Amino acid sequence: MIKILVSDALSDEGLKILKDVKEFHIDVKTDLKPDGLKEIIKDYDALLVRSATKVTKDIIDAASKLKVIGRAGVGLDNVDLAAATQKGIIVMNTPAGNTISTAEHAFSMILALSRNIPQATASTKKGEWKRSKFMGVELYAKTLGIVGFGRIGKEVAKRAISFGMSVLVYDPFLSKEIAESLGIKVVELNELLQSSDYITVHTPLTEETRHMISRPQFEIIKKGARVINCARGGIIDEEALIAAIKEGRIAGAAFDVFEKEPVAPDNELLKLDNVIVTPHLGASTEEAQVNVAIEVAEIARDALLGKGIRNAANYPCLEPEACKVLNPHIVLAEKLGLFLAQLVEGRFQELDISYSGEISAYDLSPLTMSICKGLLFPILKETVNFVNAVSLAKERGIKVKEGKASREEEFVNLIKLALKTDKETRVIWGTLSGNKQARIVKIDEYYVELYPTGKMVYIENWDRPGLIGSLGTVLGKHGVNIAAMTFGRDKPAGKAISVLSIDSPVSAELAGKIKQLENILTIKEISI
Questions:
Q1: Is the dihedral of CA 497, 500, 505, 509 positive or negative?
Q2: Contact 118/337 with Cβ under 8 angstroms?
Q3: How far apart are CA 256 and CA 117, in angstroms?
Q4: Pairing state of beta strands 250-255 and 225-229?
Q5: Contacts for 53-57 with beta carbons within 8 Å, 24 or more apart?
Q6: With the CA atoms of 145, 147, 148 and 152 taken in that order, what torsion angle do they form, in degrees rounded to the nearest 10?
Q7: Which distant-in-sequence residues (6+ apart) come within 8 Å of 467 by Cβ?
Q8: Residues 91/71, Cβ–Cβ less than 8 Å
Q9: How do 413-421 and 348-357 pair as beta strands?
Q10: Dihedral (C-alpha) 382, 157, 390, 455: value to the nearest 10 degrees?
Q11: Nearest to 383 by CA among 38, 93, 164, 60
Q12: Shortest CA distance to 15 belongs to which of 308, 285, 289?
């Protein structure tokens, strides 16, 4: 008998799918404390959660039989993914279940913001009849700017087009050809801000997207624009937005998510008449709750019955014998994709993957999935997983080519990635060290010895005496410790690269000071 524990509330429709399988025994226990869950988890083959249950390393370590963790929702911040991976537990989520619900909520906010519906409702209920006070604007012939064009952004665009709006999109992973086929236009962020009457964000919250719309962006934004955030709190700088509204640059805003939740009563956004707020209701529809419950039940059922894995966040390789060989290369492949995504400039157009050595004898699709997941993860975060990564890349117009090298290489096993963008092509080579650790051995024409993990600084420079000392000095003055360094050059006194593994992040101020050093050409911070 396969035992499944449901520790957060799931709809009856989802539970029925599991209960209809004769091989399954289902326990629903939604009031467990962490210690209680830790005590009983050893008896279960699968754990299904929403956001309330925190699946920590302690709980995973206590799970002697657990094979599957299913999250009914998108985010996986309540599951220790690294601990689950280490123990061979498949972690799956449901990134598509609330797509329509969130898109409709965002568009409802756009409509309500345009016609002052909440404010007019409150006024009318007080016995007032102030028609002139609530003069609105039409959506027809206006421009909607969408930041992030995943599933939800695409659904918002469809609704905007049906209202006669023009749609601009900023998404580093979306090709112009794909966008044009959908009747939208891809632009850079500044152009979107300068040209849009409405701006809605639909990206995950990452180090790159936190406060991506802040004071500098509000200074160039189209005067009278309206701003909507139904994605993640923190993408839009709330203090900067409040200032822009008070200065008259922004006509209004609609927020479903906040930097701190629950939102504090003294939050200035709540005091502004032209700001509409809701308490994180994007996925709060009956249909969405049913959809994610059904989806998590189906993917858990299929995984436990050996019918295939969908939406796996951490485990693309399922054949036991192949896993023994490929698992370290799966880790390498994902790290290569992550590194390359943060190295290049421009919109991704084509990814050319070449495998050589003993791994060529195996099914290489898990490696290609891992590479694509790493490549897309810096922007898409938890919405991309091993299973959907290749299809998401193709949806965005990224051509993925896979091949096996026919000639002998200098390493037993080698993965080579060449990524072409609309600005450049960059190439990296990766292999495993003797103890199976991921390692990058070449970047473009430069041979290196780099273990891609943690925080790194990638620098292009002229090969001149004194550079290493200058770097060490400026980093030391800012309290940044260098854990490891690697260098590569094409010829003495020519162009070179330096990659530093560091123990703490590089601030914008420090990055600026490094750029000012003599012989420094470019600098990028990379995090694996």
A1: negative
A2: no
A3: 16
A4: parallel
A5: 53/7, 53/8, 53/78, 54/78, 55/79, 55/80, 55/84, 56/80, 56/83, 57/83
A6: -60
A7: 461, 498, 517, 518, 519, 520
A8: yes
A9: antiparallel
A10: -40
A11: 93
A12: 289
pLDDT attached to residue 459: 95
**Which stretches of 201-237 are DSSP H helices?**
215-220
- First and final C-alpha spacing in the chain: 40
Task: Give, in order, the Cα–Cα distances in Å from 247 to each of 116, 194, 222, 224.
Answer: 20, 17, 13, 11
- Residues identified as active-site: 232, 261, 280
Q: Counting every residue, how long is the chain? A: 528
Neighbours of 64 (CB within 10 A): 10
Cβ partners under 8 Å of residue 102, min gap 6: 152, 230, 282, 283, 288
More confidently predicted of 458 and 316: 458
* Per-residue pLDDT tens digits for 252-307: 999 999 999 999 999 999 999 999 999 999 989 999 999 999 999 999 999 999 88
Is the CB of residue 311 less than 8 Å from the CB of residue 345? no
- Is 312's pLDDT higher than 90? no
Q: Looking at this protein, which amino acid is placed at residue 471?
A: L
